[in-house]
């Protein structure tokens, strides 16, 4: 039986958020790190062939009174996208959330946001995403952001598996050209 998530939709992968399975060293992101006390704590769930997240902006997320700051919208699309990419790589490798294997961590290589309508401040925002290309290390993710059912923004991003040299505690990467 699927559980109900914050977005009010059925969750897959045992109803576990991708961000709750990132290794601790990778769980400090301002947008989605569960260990960042000042962060947004975005949670991404599987919903069939898509992913979904929900976030209710607060008054400090104002652009002009009554409307949401575009940088917040980009953050939601960004963090939901990297999580969608991580989940796609995890699935490709035959895993499901809840398996003991660590969930891979992706970083943003490219992020495009199309702001289609002013986003009202008040309703919960829902972002739906999907991996449209899954390569060895690179995943292209497309997404849409809705406010009260109205499409307000679209995103397209390239997410890349964090190289081992980015892992905290790893030896520094060699300088370019060496
Ligand atoms: C967090 C910053 C890093 C600090 C390290 C802290 C340690 C903790 C580690 C992890 C925590 C994760 C926390 C995530 C937070 C959530 C999301 C964010 O806010 S991320 C912040 C903004 N993003 C960056 O700062 C990336 C800066 N860029 C890079 O480091 C590199 O450029 C990187 C890793 C993205 C790619 O470098 P390559 O040397 O590993 O790999 P190549 O061969 O260049 O690219 C792989 C594939 O991606 C494509 N690609 C790369 N950049 C692209 C671009 N801009 N547009 C389109 N495709 C691109 C390439 O064409 C290639 O594709 P083909 O496999 O050949 O098909």
UniProtKB/TrEMBL annotation:
UniProt keyword terms in alphabetical order: Apoptosis, Cell membrane, Cell projection, Cytoplasm, Fatty acid metabolism, Hydrolase, Lipid metabolism, Membrane, Transit peptide
Protein name as catalogued: Acyl-coenzyme A thioesterase THEM4
Cross-referenced Pfam families: 4HBT (PF03061)
Domain Thioesterase: 66-149
Gene Ontology cellular component list: cytoplasm; membrane
Family the entry assigns: Belongs to the THEM4/THEM5 thioesterase family.
Recorded catalytic activity of this chain's protein: hexadecanoyl-CoA + H2O = hexadecanoate + CoA + H(+); dodecanoyl-CoA + H2O = dodecanoate + CoA + H(+); tetradecanoyl-CoA + H2O = tetradecanoate + CoA + H(+); (5Z,8Z,11Z,14Z)-eicosatetraenoyl-CoA + H2O = (5Z,8Z,11Z,14Z)-eicosatetraenoate + CoA + H(+)
Compartments, record wording: Cell projection, Ruffle membrane; Cytoplasm; Membrane
Signal peptide as annotated in the record: none
GO MF terms held by the record: hydrolase activity
One GO BP: fatty acid metabolic process
Keyword Lipid metabolism belongs to the record: yes
Its membrane topology: Peripheral membrane protein
Sequence intervals crossing the membrane: none
Domain of life according to the entry: Bacteria
């Amino acid at each position: 039986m699927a559980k109900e998530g914050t977005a009010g939709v059925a969750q897959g992968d045992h109803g576990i958020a991708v961000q709750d399975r990132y290794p601790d060293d990778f769980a400090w992101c301002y947008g989605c790190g569960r260990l960042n006390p000042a962060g947004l704590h975005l949670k991404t769930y599987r919903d069939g062939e898509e992913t979904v997240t929900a976030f209710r902006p607060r008054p400090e997320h104002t652009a002009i009174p009554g409307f949401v700051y575009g940088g917040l919208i980009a953050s939601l699309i960004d963090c939901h996208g990297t999580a969608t990419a991580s989940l796609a790589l995890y699935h490709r490798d035959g895993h499901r959330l809840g398996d003991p294997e660590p969930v891979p961590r992706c970083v943003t290589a490219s992020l495009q946001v199309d702001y289609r309508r002013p986003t009202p401040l008040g309703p919960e925002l829902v972002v739906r995403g999907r991996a449209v290309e899954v390569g060895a290390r690179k995943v292209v993710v497309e997404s849409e952001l809705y406010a009260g059912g109205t499409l307000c923004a679209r995103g397209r991003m390239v997410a890349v598996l964090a190289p081992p040299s980015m892992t905290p505690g790893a030896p520094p990467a060699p300088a370019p050209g060496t």
